Amino acid sequence: MSLPVASRPIADPPTGALPPLPTTANKQPRKSLSQPPSRLKTPSRTSILPVSQALSSAPDLPSSKGTERPSGIPSTTKTVRKTISIGSFPQPPTPTSGFRPGTSASLASTTSTRKRTSDGNASGILTLSNKTKKSPRASGGSFRGSQTPSLLNSAGDGMTVSARAGNRISDAQSSIHSLPQSRSSSANGSYSTTATTIEDGDDDNRGRTKDSDDMISESKRNSKGKESKGNVIVSVRVRPDAGTTNNSQSEGEWMVDGRRSLVAYRGKEGGDYHYDNVFNTYDDNAKVYDAAAKRLVRRVMEGYHGTVFAYGMTGTGKTFSMQGTMSSPGVIPLAITDIFSYIRETPHREFLLRVSYLEIYNEKIHDLLATPVGGGIGGPQQEEIKLREDSKRGVYATPLKEEIVQSPTQLLRVIHRGDTARRTGSTQYNARSSRSHAVVQIVVESRERVPGSGAMHENGKRVAMLPGGVRVSTLSLIDLAGSERAAEDKERRTEGAHINKSLLTLGTVIAKLSGNKDKNGNPMDKDGKHLPYRDSKLTRLLQPALSGGSLVSILCTIQIGAGLTAASSNNTGETLNTLKFAARAKNNIVSHAKKAAEEVGTGVNAGLLERYRSEIQSLRSQLEGQQRSAAEKEEKQMEKEAEQRHEEQMLEMQLARTALKERIEHLNRLILCSKSTGVNSGTVSALGMHSRLSAGTDIAGSRSVRSSASQSTLGVTPGLKRYPSAASLANPQSASTHLSFPVIHDEDEEAGGDYFGDGRATLQAQVRALQADLQDKTRYISTLEKRLLQARRSSHSRVSMAFNKTPGEDGEFIKKLDEKDAMIADLQKTVAALRSAVRKRDIAELSPEMSSNEFKQNRSQDGHQSNDSNTSSQLSSLGISQASSGPRSPLSASPMTLLSPQKAPEKKRKTVDEMSKMLDEMIQDKVESGQYTKRSTSFRISQRGPPPGLSRSTSSAGNVTGPAMGTLVASLRERDSMFEPGNPS
Ligand SMILES: Nc1ncnc2c1ncn2[C@@H]1O[C@H](COP(=O)(O)OP(=O)(O)OP(=O)(O)O)[C@@H](O)[C@H]1O
After folding, report:
1. Distance between CA atoms of 833 and 612, rounded to whole angstroms?
2. Which stretches of sequence are listed as region Disordered (predicted)?
3. d(CA 675, CA 681)
């Protein structure tokens, strides 16, 4: 069977929080107190007139002129006539009837109302009968005893209430003042108008008809338990019937007296029915809430369990009363507002609210919060909800979704969600009839806040809290489905059958309630039989409330208008049934509600508050522990890192030290090798030879004295003087330079510290000598460069001259051109000579056994070729640097060569190749491009890497090109000099 999908219109959810409620008992206009929850049923009528209007034209109020008819209710016109005054009804026999605690305003209004009443204009009495003279049958049966103190009236609060029947304010008066009432939930701020009617103390007779003898006996039985009976409020609300007219037969049979909480029926089986509250057709939801539920809600907040449920025939206004409308919020939204007001007003306690929402549809329980919106009946299947019983929790549904809420808006949203999921359907009497019993349960957990431990924020300060016990109470707000006649529609019939059965069971249980219990504490009827709570889910669920564990407020809704002409007789029967049900409930339900005990610990009954609190504490300690361990870890990590860093630094330092040591050793080796080469082998040091050879050139004049000193520092023996180069011998200037050696030597010696005891040069002296030598080479190479530039420039001018020449200059130009050509040719020859020299040296290195004669021969051939011009002679003297069999220059051998003699020939060959190539490229650049590209040359050199022998001079000079070339040329010259005829090697 497919169930109808919820068809109630979904109103917009509230967009903002409800307005703050006053925290004191100041009266505020009701408008400002209750923000209408948006999701509630849209009012289908506006028949409830303003109270002021009601006062002035009370007799016409129920007619609700100009208002819409409720849907599903036949429209008839009916004029309500006010025909009798309050005095026409019997007054309570005792003069000590309850008097509601009231404000001066209410008292003032009492006076005025009474005055109006005496004038016959009072609206408090409304009769639909035209038999106004007839005395109500129930008049003699209305007994009013002394006030019964109860939890749901002010006496229960310990307030002194003076009771005097004559001063009892009518409900009409209440309605007059209901508008400016405050929505405050403060106990002391509760106005007389909102108090229940129980304070009159006529509990025994409330809801009892004059002729119901059994109820009288029950009344006697319950007289001993007046107090507990005061914990049950039974109210009857009469639904307005906008379309009623006075042409109905039943019109004259009903009388509703709101002031005396009386409903009288003059027809068959009629009687007077007194209740705690009787709300007239013009009483609005706020008044109903104030009188029937407000105090109970407050008690729930204090720790009592409370149950409010609406009972009545279909279409009589149960949902309207419980949910209300946008403009007239019902019991549920007003209760929610009060709950949060109470929390605001109770700073010394902390609260936790959780809400669940279920429905009993066709005897099955559905979780309305777990149902996806729009899922309806055909939606995803829910887990079956079962009812369980617990000695502490009583009967409860499980598994049920509970949502923790923190604001009225949030709570209203949750309930709205449940409303949309609830089953409704159209019936004969109600276009949107609730097809299920709906139960909203709000669980309130609270605990005292005492400075001492824990933490809360108050005025921005952290205040300690004592972890006291948690009190858990529940507020059940139940909108029952309406009893109804069998419908034609099969589905409606099935639903109706379930509804009626469960309501019947409820009636039966209530009728059998006796307050008796067996030895196990199970409720029993007066005959000692068990109550049939298990006969329906509804009674099972209501068992804790009905068996006295909860404060109870029952709102029974009726419709007495003759507007429902077609079913008026049916209505009367249903209405009477409802009235009887209400009377039984009032008489039979005995509530011994007590404040829930405060539970300490984290058990099931301790509530979430305690569990959350302890969870928070354990989480906090966990967090602290984690933070501590994290800090420790971090500290350890930092220590480890610092240690690592230290180790790395040490390692780096060690490496650096090793590298430095190696470098020093390496340098020492180089220097010592140079020195030892010069000293120990008795051969001429390369550097010394450089100086000597450079002195042999035509630029030797620029040779410095320091250069000579370098020779001395390198340990050049006096024997060197015995082997001057041919050029130096031929050149007196160079010879004189050589003669200066001893002088410098002496100077160095005199300076002290330049020589070791064994006569070897110190490191400093050697470095100085090397630097000086380097400078010499730099100078030499720059001279060469200048010459090349000059040659280039003249070549340029020759070309330009060729373009600009006049016919007469031809001969001269051609001559110059020839000269330049010759120069270029010379340079090219030089290059060729250098190449062949290098090649020869290579051969010599490869064939150590080759005789010096062969070399000499080769040398003489080369020398012959290179003597063609000045330039060539210069270059030949410096370019042939062959040291095949003689001592090798350290510059032409890398340190590695020195360390590994086996690899030396190969490396040397490579070096020479590179040198020749470099030189070739250099000259080629200068000649062909016509520009001296110092940078590009240097780049080329650096790209290819300097020959090992040149590296030191290159880096130490700071100028790559000059020293590199200088060194190169010097090296070549040095080697060349070795093949001079006078050279002993
Ligand atoms: N006191 C009232 N004032 C104005 N309109 C009312 C009042 N009571 C009921 N109505 C209107 O009567 C119609 C039926 O009311 P409601 O749905 O509350 O009845 P019900 O008892 O919940 O019915 P059911 O048992 O079928 O769900 C709605 O349109 C509602 O607005």
Report:
1. 101
2. 1-252, 620-641, 848-985
3. 10
Residue 437: closest CA among 547, 507, 362, 354: 362
pTM: 0.49
Q: Where are the alpha helices (DSSP H) in 346-407?
A: none
| 486 exposure class (CB count in 10 Å sphere: 0-12, 13-18, 19+) | exposed
Q: Is 306 in the pocket of ligand 1 (CB under 6 A)?
A: no
The residue ranges of every structural domain in the chain are: 49-64+72-231+251-599, 604-664, 681-977
For residue 61 and ligand 1, the question of a CB distance below 6 A is answered with no
Centre of ligand 1 to C-alpha 571, Å, is 15
Tokens of 190: 């509760």
Q: Which of 827, 774, 783, 830 lies closest to 970 in space, CA to CA? A: 774
In short, whether 565's Cβ falls inside 6 Å of ligand 1 is: no
Question: ipTM score of the complex?
Answer: 0.99
Half-sphere exposure of 651 (CA within 13 A, CB side): 6
* Dihedral pair phi/psi, residue 673, rounded to 5°: -65, -45
Closest-CA residue to 515 (of 225, 806, 132): 225
Residues 6+ apart with CB under 8 A from 88: 125, 132, 135
ω before 37 within 30° of 0 (cis)? Answer: no
State both tokens at 199. Answer: 């304070």
Digit-coded pLDDT (tens) for 474-500? 999 999 998 877 666 777 788 888 888
Instruction: Give the DSSP per-residue string, 46-99.
Output: -----HHHHHHTGGGGGG-TT-PPPTTS------------GGGSPPPSSS----
Q: Is residue 795 a contact partner of residue 824, using CB atoms and an 8 Å limit?
A: yes
- Residue 677 φ then ψ, to 5°: -60, -40
**How distant, in Å, are the alpha carbons of 73, 215, 280, 423, 487 from that of 491?**
21, 38, 34, 12, 9
Does the beta carbon of 324 sit less than 6 angstroms from any atom of ligand 1?
no
Q: What is the pLDDT of residues 797-818, one digit of tens each?
A: 655 555 554 555 567 777 888 8
DSSP 8-state class, residue 424? E
Residue type, 425: G
Over residues 755-777, the pLDDT tens digits come to 555 555 677 887 888 888 888 77
Element of type H or E holding 794: helix 763-804
Interhelix angle 961-977/810-846, rounded to 10 degrees, is 70
Residue 319 marked in a binding site: yes
In whole angstroms, give the CA distance from residue 237 to residue 328.
15
> Which atom of ligand 1 sits closest to the CA of residue 310?
21
> Residue 511: pLDDT band by 50, 70, 90 thresholds?
confident
Residues 6+ apart with CB under 8 A from 502: 360, 363, 437, 536, 537, 538, 539
E strands in 343-490: 349-361, 364-367, 386-390, 394-398, 403-405, 424-425, 433-434, 437-448, 456-458, 461-463, 470-479
Does the annotation place 701 within a ligand binding site?
Answer: no
Compute the average pLDDT of residues 695-709.
39
- Find where tokens 């009388």 sit: 255
> CA end-to-end span of the chain, whole Å?
126
Question: What top-level class would CATH report for the domain 49-64+72-231+251-599?
Answer: alpha beta
